[in-house]
## 1
Amino acid sequence: MISRVALVTGASRGIGRAIAEQLAADGHRVAVNYIRSEDEAEAVAEKIRAGGGEAKSVGADVGSDEAVAGLFQEVESSLGPVEILVNSAGITRDGLLLRMKVTDWDDVLATNLRSVFLCTKVALRPMVKARWGRVISVTSVAGISGNAGQANYSAAKAGIIGFTKAVAKEVGSRGITVNAVAPGFIETDMTAELDDATRAEVKRRVSVGRFGTPQEIAFAVGYLAGEQAGYVNGQVVVVDGGLAI
C-alpha cells in the first residue's frame, strides 16, 4: 500500500470518523477536519497516532471559501499536498417544505454541497500536477430517491451525484478518479434520533434487516481511495443493505 495524504471533512464523529480511521489503517496520513467538535476530532487523531499512524486534527468551516483555502494550506504544511479528498461533512435541518426556513435550506446546501465544490476545486490543482488523485464524496440514498421532510438534504445529496459525474469526466484523463458513496440508514447520531416505530419500519424495508455501521461505509471509501480502484470513475456506490425504495 502506497502511503498518501488524505483529508476527511466532517471527521470528528460518525461516518467521517470511521473513514478517517479506515484510511489510517490502510497506511495513509490523515487530516481530521472538524468545525466545532475540536476535542472529538483530536481524539480521532490521537487514536490514529496511538496505533502507529500519522494524523492531525484541523478545524475549518468547509462551507467558507476562505476557510477552505486555509484548511488545505495547513494540511499541506503539516502532512503534504492532499492526494485523497473525502467530502464527508454534512448536517440536517429537517422539515416539510412549506414550513422550511430559508436559513435551513441555505445552511444544509452550504455544508453538504457547497463544501464539496470548494474542497474539490482546491484539491484538484496539486492532483492534476501529480497526475494522481482520489475524490470521494459521501452522498445518500436520499439524493437518489428523495425523502419526505428532507427537501434540502435530498437536493444537496442529489447535487453531489451530479457534481461527481461531471467532474469525473473533466479529470479522469489526469489519473484522478471522482466517485461517491451513498449510505442508506447507518447507526449514527442522526439516526439515533429516530423513534422505535420508525426504526422498526426501516428495518422492515431493508432486506438485510438492520441498520448499517459507519465502518461498512468506510470500507467502501477505502476501496475507492486505493490504487486498485483506478478504473472506477464517476460512480455512485450504494451501501444500503438492499433498501426497498
Note: The chain has nine helices and seven strands.
## 2
Amino acid sequence: MENQTKPAQAKPAQTQSALDEIIKNKYNEINALKESGFNPYPAHVEPKQNCAQAKEAPIDSEVVVAGRLVQLRLMGKASFAHIKDFSGKIQIYVQKDSVGDEPYTFFKKHIAVGDFVLVSGKMFLTHTNEKTIKATKVELISKAVRPMPEKFHGIQDTEVRFRKRHLDLIANEEVKDIFVKRAKIISSIRRTLDAKGYLEVETPILTPDSGGAVARPFQTYHNALKMPLRLRIALELYHKRLIVGGFDRIYEIGHMFRNEGIDTTHNPEFTMMELYQAYGDVNTMADLFEEILGNAAKSIGVEKVMFHGQEINLVPPFKRLYIPQAWQEKFGHDIHEVLDGRQFRREPLAALAKEQGISFSADDPDSKLFDELFETKLLAGFNCPVIAFDYPTAVSPFSKTKPGDPELVERFEAFVCGSELGNAYSELNDPADQLQRLKDQAIAKAKAKGEDAENADILDGDYIEALESGMPPTGGMGIGIDRTIMLLTGQDSIREIIFFPTLKKQD
C-alpha cells in the first residue's frame, strides 16, 4: 500500500566512516550466509512476468516476479514492500502464515532495500484497490552491499550523477526515461531509412587518416603493422567509396572521436549518423531531414518541446533560409562582395564583422568571421528548426557548386536555437575539383597551425583515386544523434543524454 510508507525526511550525507561500517557489516552478513550453506548470488532464476505484466494479471492468478526491493515496511507477522524492474514497480505483501515461520524470519533479518528478490504469489487487491502480490515465497537472489541513494530526493550532485550513472538511474526515474527515449529515437531513424531502401553499413573506426572533416583526431599505433592509426572523426570518405562501388542508398550510425574541447554540446566520443543517396541532391536531403526529425519526434510522442528556454515546434515543414538572400536583407550587401572564388576577401569580410560588432583577432581565419556573422546575426531570432542553404564554397570542400555561381555551393545546415543538428551536400564528384579543394583545405589548415603549407598533405589521396572510377550524382547528409536527442528530450547538456560522458579523472 502506497500510504503505508511515509516519505522520509532528507538526511545529511553519510560520513565515509559510517559508510565503511555499513559495507563491513554487509560483507560479514554475506559471509555468514555463505558459511551456513546459503548462496546469496544464485546463478539461475526464472521470473515468469515483469512488474507491469503482473499488474495486468487477473486477481487470484499466480505470478513470479523478480526485481530490486525499493521500499520496505517490516511489521510483526506481515510486511509490505515494493519491488522494481525496468517495466515499473509493484507492491508485495509478505505474511508469516503464507510464507512460513523460517522464511519470514529470514526475510525480516536478511532482506533489505537494495537487494534483488524473486517473489512468487497470487494477485489480490488491497483495501485501497492497489494490485499487490500476496507472496507465498520470497527468495534473495542478489545481496546489495552498498546502501541505495536516498529514494525520495534522488541524487542532486551532477558530478556524482555522471560519474556513478548506475546510482543516478536507480534514484532518478526521469533519467531512465531519457535513455529509453534515446533508444526509441535511434530506432525511429533506422525505421525511416530502412523503409526508404537505405542499407545500414559499417566502416572502420581505426583508419590511416581520420577522413572527411577538419578536426583533431585521437591517435594510436598498431604494433603488428608498425603504423600509426587514428580514430575516425567522420564517415564520409568510406561511404562515398561505397557509392562508387554501386551501393545506391547507405547509412551508418556510429561513434566519432574528436580530440577537442568539452562543453554542453561537445563530448570527445559522440554518435553521428551519415547517409548517402545516389541520384539525390541537397534538396532530396532537406526533405529527408524533415521526415527523419518529424518521425523521431512522433516516436516519443512529442510535437513541441522546451529547449534552451524556448518552445520548439517539431512538426514539419521547417523554415528554409537562403544565406545570400538573408545576407542581403540583414547587412545590405551582396554576399559575393566578401567572396573570391574558393576563398573569402579578408578586407571586406573583416570590415563587415567590425561593423556588426563581431570581435576577432588578426590571426582568426576568415571562416571564423563568416561563422560569427552567420550564427550570431543571420540565425538570430530563429528558434524552431531552420534549414540554411547556399554556403560559400570557401567553407564547403566536399560540396558541388551552384550552377552558374562557383562561389556558392549546394549545401545546407540545420539549426535549432543556434545548435547545429545536421549538414548536407550535393556531393562533389569531380575528382580534379575535389583534389584542388582538398589541397586548399590542407594548406589553410597548415597555415593556421604555423606549419609548412607547401608540404601540406591532403586528407585522403586514395579517395581521389576512388572518385576517378566515377561516382554518380549523390546527396549526402550527416545528423548529430546526440544533439538531436538533446532537442527531442529537452536537455540543454549533452551529458544528460550520454550514459557515460567523458570526465576528468578524479585524484
Note: The longest helix spans residues 173-195.
## 3
Amino acid sequence: MAYQQLKGTGVALVTPFQKNGSIDFIALETLIAHVIKGGVDFLVALGTTAETTTLTSDEKKEVLAAVMRISNGQLPVVCGIGGNNTEDVVQQLKEFDLTGVDAVLSVTPYYNKPSQEGLYQHFKAVSAASSKPVILYNVPGRTGCNLLPATAIRLATDFENIIAIKEASGNITQCMELIRDKPDHFTVLSGDDNLAIAQMAIGMEGIISVAANCFTKDMTDIINLSIVGKFDKARKVFYRILPAIDLLFAEGNPAGVKCALKQMGICEQYLRLPLVPVSDVTAKKLATYTKP
C-alpha cells in the first residue's frame, strides 16, 4: 500500500456494547458510517479507546472482522495488536486474520517497565513476526515506559516495515527531537487530541484521534487545514472544541467519548469494568457540545 494513506486523521474506534455486555455490532456500523461521512482518512480498530484489554481473543477477531466488513475497502484500516508479553504479541500477529488490514498499531509493553534496549528487542520481534507494516505506539501515561526518540529512530532505521509512530508522550520537546532526526520514510502521528495543532505545526503528519469518534468533522477540518498551513483557520475550530476535548478525557477514555456518542444517538455508553460512565456533571457539560 501507499503509506501516505496513513496520514491525516485516523480515528481510534470505540467498541460499542449492549446492556448485557455483549458487543453491539449494529452500533459499530452506525459509528463507522458516521466517521466516514465526517471525512476521516483511516480507521483504527482495537486500540486503547476500543477497551481492547477487556475483550477476549475471539471478540477481538470478531470486532476486526466487523470493521473490515463494514468499511468494505472505503478507507485503510489499522489493527491494534500489542501487549506486555512479547511472545504473546508475536503469536497474535500469526493468528489474527489480517487480510485487507493496512498496518498494525503496537503499543509499548505496559507494567513491565522495560529499558530502551528491552523496547528495541520487543519491537524487533514484532517487526519480524508482522506480515503488515508496523506503527509504534508510545503512550507513557498509560504504560509506565517512554519510547525515547533515539530508540524509535533506531527501530525505524533498522526495520523497513516499521513505518510510523503514534506519539502520545505529551512532551513537545521530545516530539520535536523525534521529527528532527527521523528517517524520511517514517511518519510521526499525534496521539494527543488537545495538542493536535501544536504537533502539526512542528511537523507531525496527522493524528490517531479519540475525539474524531464524535467531533469528526471538526477534527478532520483541524488536521486538513493544518496540513496545508492554514493554522489561522484551524485555530478557530480547535479553540471552539478544545473544552469539549478536555471533557472527553476528564473522567477517563473512552468513558467521555462514549457519553458524547450516546448523546449523539450513535451508541450507548456501556463500558466494561473497571471503566464506568462519566458523572452527570461531566455529561451535562458535554451535552452543550453534542446537542444540535
Note: The radius of gyration is 18 Å.
